[in-house]
# Entry
Amino acid sequence: MDVDRFEIRLCGSGGQGIILASIVLAEAAGIIEDYNVSQTQSYGPEARGGRCKAEVVISSRQIDYPKAIQLDMILAMNQASCDAYCYDFKHNGLLLVDSGFVDQAPTSRVVPLPFTNIAKDVSGTGLVANIVALGALGHFCPLLSRKSLEAALIARVPPDTKKINSKALEAGIKAAEKFDLESLPRSIIPEEEEI
# Structure
């Protein structure tokens, strides 16, 4: 698929695996799907608990600016990161949130899925919630296939966690498949009226 810029922001708290999820996403798009990719990240001085974000820019062309400008997709894993980082949407931008931790979304184009609860069902712990969310994000991203996401994930995680991470990714994809995007409003930004 030919694309000028497709921009994704992932945000949450330090320790939630946001950076790992963004790296897997970037490697799926860049190494396996053969797009040009830029991945950036920022987080506070706290090792765990502080807000963090990562951005992935995907393009068929050379990327002249590595950071996101207008986002096609945002993933927010908690309310604090949603409040801080959910802005700069494109016309039909899509927000995915962990419905167990985000009560208020700044847009009506939101996909609320219980990523942490799904992770607990799959693994007995919420530690793979980032991978569940990655599966859902990948499902809604038109540039990535399930196969490329799984290959990038398996190449990145420690060998003894491959099975549980694959299960988490699959659970996120299945949860996303049940969500009807057609039920969402077409746009979060009104189109310019003709004068």
